Amino acid sequence: MYRDYAEPELGLPQILLIAMLVVPLLGAAVVALFPAARDRQARLVATGFAAVTFLLSVAPLLYQESEYGWFQYGDRDTPPLLPWARVDIEWVPALGLDLHLGVDGISYPLIVLTGLLTLLCCAYTVKKVPDGGAGRTLAALLLVLEVGVLGTFLALDLILFFLFFEVVLLPMFAVIAGWGGPRRRAAARKFVLYTLAGSVLLLLGVLIVVARAGTGDLVALTGASPLDRTVQYSVFALLAVAFAIKAPLWPLHTWLPDAHTEAPTVGSVILAGVLLKMGTYGLIRVGVGVAPLGAAWAAPVLGILAVIAIIAGALICLRQTELKRLIAYSSVGHMGFVMLGIATLSITGIQAALIGNIAHGLITGLLFFLAGALKDRTGTGSLNQLSGLRETAPRLAALFGFAAIASLGLPGLAGFWGEAFAVVAAVQRGGPLWLTLAVFAAIGGALTAAYFLRLLRQVTHGPPTPEVRALDPSSYEAHVLHPPTSPGPASPSASPFSSPSASPLSSPSAGSDDEPRSELSRAEWFAWAPLVLLTLAVGVLPALILGGTLQPLTTLLGVHR
Q1: What is the pLDDT of residue 476?
Q2: Does pLDDT of 65 surpass 60?
Q3: Which end of the chain is less enclosed by CB atoms within 10 A, N or C?
Q4: CB 72 within 8 A of CB 82
Q5: 90: part of which helix (H) or strand (E)?
Q6: 423, 434, 298, 291: which is closest to 352 by C-alpha?
Q7: Domain segments of the chain as ranges
Q8: Which of 171, 161, 254, 150 lies closest to 199, judged by CA?
Q9: Residues contacting 314, CB < 8 A, separation 6+
């Protein structure tokens, strides 16, 4: 199968696409060359590179070239879909591998989310990672992770997609194993084993498509798959399991709670905010786009598993006693709503999945930042030891309450749209099965509200526990302005990256903010304010995410609509 459309000229939009990958990769290399004595400067440089990359990720908004808004499409007689801007350069001709990149309404919001969260995490490390030589390594790993995630969202060639999909594996393993909690190595190994299993299945699916179709070009394959029915069934089964592991979908989710619980704060933010989205994005872009008949065949199974994930995640959260683990299991439920939307194979359902992806990245990223801050201050993540926060740190308690309410799906905030319209899409799909799934998904939404309200009652209300009482500002002068001069045992609350058996690469630090540790520091305000504002903005104006999705989704679903 050969392309029947002209290759793009190399202009400013194409240069911007390449620069999105080159800048963070160059930044990682530069930061890695810094000596240990200039660790803090290296983290500042990493933040600078992340800021440039974020500006590049926003740049597509400036190119409004067609009646469809941000993106430029071809007609149905040439290629089914042409992104607003793409670059297509021969890379390895002997293997038929091209550097084929592009952006459209499906990938653009995820690209911006990746740029934003990476910037906030790099900035967060400047204050919250102790000096001593290890911080620059963490910052470099965050930039490498950004390259892999952005490449996955930009790739329009299946083999290139697979390569970028795999880039994130080793850096995330290193982040968890190097800066995680007491059981960080076991969690990192579990993450790698699950991900490698999915990678094998993904590679098999990609090779079958390329061999049978004669091309790996997603522009040519989307909406016009040349694969016969049997091949599409086989390919989609392989791809669905691979992407379900990454998403993750029940019962392939068991690596996620351990990885989130043991990962450092920035690792949890990146993992929840963007790495999980690689699975759902891949299922939409590659699974549904390349094997639509296989997607229609497997849709009922995906829908059933998605609803089980919603219910199971909520029930487990009702019994959780550890904060980060509760947020991790809440992700299983939220991604269940995303998978339910995809399973409906309707424009409404996949739009629900797309906005659910963004909402989850913003809100859960904020929740993990807050969980890290609480553990940093109190030395514990146990809910039994976190009570009465509103009395000792009212601003921190208020922000935690906002994040929890946003995550339970309150109307007017970003979390509402994805969950509500996933249920609506299931109802619109019709039939006893889908109506039943809609009912159980709605019950899961109610259970989600129940466990988040329980969480708020436990953490922000009630009498303060000794750990939370220690945050009283009256203890600030004794513990921060005049710390002990003699060396003593490291406090487990000194850094979100430290733990009772912390990595040798990390060390405790009391931080340098000239304000009480019970309340929000300037670095924390900087890292969290954009997430709060975007949660509000997307909740009020969902068109910010969905404005450019109608045309590409119409093409994507055109084969079986």
Answers
A1: 39
A2: no
A3: C
A4: yes
A5: strand 85-92
A6: 423
A7: 12-470+518-556
A8: 161
A9: 333, 444, 447, 448, 450, 451
Question: Which parts of 320-431 fold into alpha helices (H)?
Answer: 323-343, 347-378, 389-392, 394-407, 415-429
Average pLDDT over residues 520-539: 85
- At 50 the three-state DSSP class reads helix
Burial 73-95, CB ≥16 within 10 A → b, else e: beeeeebbbbbbbbbbeeeeeee
Q: Which two tokens stand for residue 383?
A: 């809910």
Residue (of 340, 334, 552) closest to 427 by Cα position: 340
At 44-53, the pLDDT tens digits run: 999 999 999 9
Q: Residue 372: what pLDDT? A: 84
The tokens describing 301, both together, are 């199974």
Cβ atoms 290, 224 nearer than 8 A: no
172-187 per-position pLDDT tens digit:
999 888 887 788 888 8
Measured CA to CA in angstroms, residue 361 lies from 206, 213, 307 at distances of: 27, 35, 20
- What pTM does this model have? 0.85
User: Which of 431, 406, 428 is CA-nearest to residue 418?
Assistant: 406
Does the pLDDT value for residue 40 go beyond 70?
Answer: yes
Contact 426, 344 (CB under 8 A): yes
State the Cα angle at 544 between 540 and 546, rounded to 5°.
110
Among the listed ranges 11-25, 160-174, 360-374, which one has the minimum average pLDDT value? 11-25
